[in-house]
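Before a computer can learn anything about folding, someone has to put a protein's shape into writing. The outcome of that step, for a single protein, is printed below:
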Amino acid sequence: MSGLRADIIPGGPDRAYDPSPMRRPPLTPQYKWGEKYITDMRHLPITHLLGFSKFKIMSRYRRGPAEVLRLLFTYAGIPFENPTLRAVDWKCLMDKVPYGNLPALWIDHNIYGEIHVVTRHIARSMGMLGATEAETLVVEAVLEQVRKLRESEILQKAFEELQERVDDNFEQAFTVILPQHFAFWEKHITDGCGPFIVASGMSVADIAIFDFVYQYRVYLPIDNVLVNFRHLQALLNAVRTNQRLAVYIKSVFAGVR
């Protein structure tokens, strides 16, 4: 083994994690196959990105905001590495990660930050942002709503109040904020004849809703609100039982139901 950076074995008890993929020829046999058999060459870059690249999702958390991207890769059958970085790893990588925060996605020899933007780009490449412009607008809107919910101070304060004494934030979260968003999403489901947000089928919006509910139900009694939204329950069940996702979901979301 050479001393090149790309040949350093990742991880180890006395060595910081190095996310660099192992070296390989710049033109892989798979890429040559793509050049030969893909008749419409406009699709070659996307095919190369999703089929022949090496992905690593770099995060300090087992789930967190990068979980939607993990579910997308799993749904598409795209292999990826999923290292959980230690504090020492993060200190070594901090200057190399765009915008200085995690999660980030390593694609071959490049690191891309702002995981929500990366997730949407990958979803677009997979055709998971809706089949029409109208559907794309709906999917993008739902993704933005989920992102804002995840970053909402009210949900964080509601959790803190749940541990001590229920107060205004908890009441607002469970009588206003969550029911309002669940009603928005249920209307999209019924408008599209269900069980998903858009009529063309499962999109990244459905995956994001599933991820939000199943991550937060561990900390907050979301089921008390969800019981009033049967169409949204059907969406969650459709994602949970999807044959491409079921095994992964069972392994990640303990006690999933």
Summary: Residues 133-252 form a domain with the Glutathione S-transferase Yfyf (Class Pi); Chain A, domain 2 fold (CATH 1.20.1050.10). The radius of gyration is 20 Å. The CA atoms of residues 145 and 181 lie 8 Å apart. The mean pLDDT is 80.
